Amino acid sequence: MNTMRKTVIVLDPDEEHSKGLCAVLEREQYRTISVVSLKDLQPCLDRNVPFALLLDLDLVPLDNRTLRDLRTLHRTLCIIGLSSRSFHPELKEALSRHIDACFSKPVDLDALLYYLKGAQDNRAEDWPKVLESEEVLS
User: Dihedral of CA 26/50/61/118: which sign?
Assistant: First the structure.
């Protein structure tokens, strides 16, 4: 049985890059949602239960507080940064505490898919428990 895996949101203002990344993820049976700004992200998070968020650290204006708030509100979300830079001093706290992984651009797609598969498998046991606890808080 070939069923769709969990949803991955791609936050990347470079629409061409985003489309290519989404196409690869969809071939691997992930459901993808592409957004171009932080403003567009929150409604997608509210309407869906995404498994992962891929975000372009080079093109999306982010700060530590934004990523901390994102992590606080969406504890189960696997946050993955993509960057052509090896160091983001403005995101020092977020990179060490709130981002699960970071991949250099151009992205090694095999490595990204391997990471997503492993993260999905590791979180699969906890997923129903986390959803139940979030429903109680609502």
Answer: negative
What H or E segment, with its residue span, contains residue 118?
A: helix 109-124
Domains identified in the chain, total number: 1
Its pTM stands at: 0.81
Query: At 32, is the secondary structure helix, strand, or coil?
Result: strand
Asked if residue 2 is part of any domain, the answer here is no
CATH code for the domain of 55: 3.40.50.2300
Output the six-digit token pair for 137. 């808080």
In a domain, 12, yes or no: yes
47-60 pLDDT, tens digit per residue, is 888 899 999 988 98
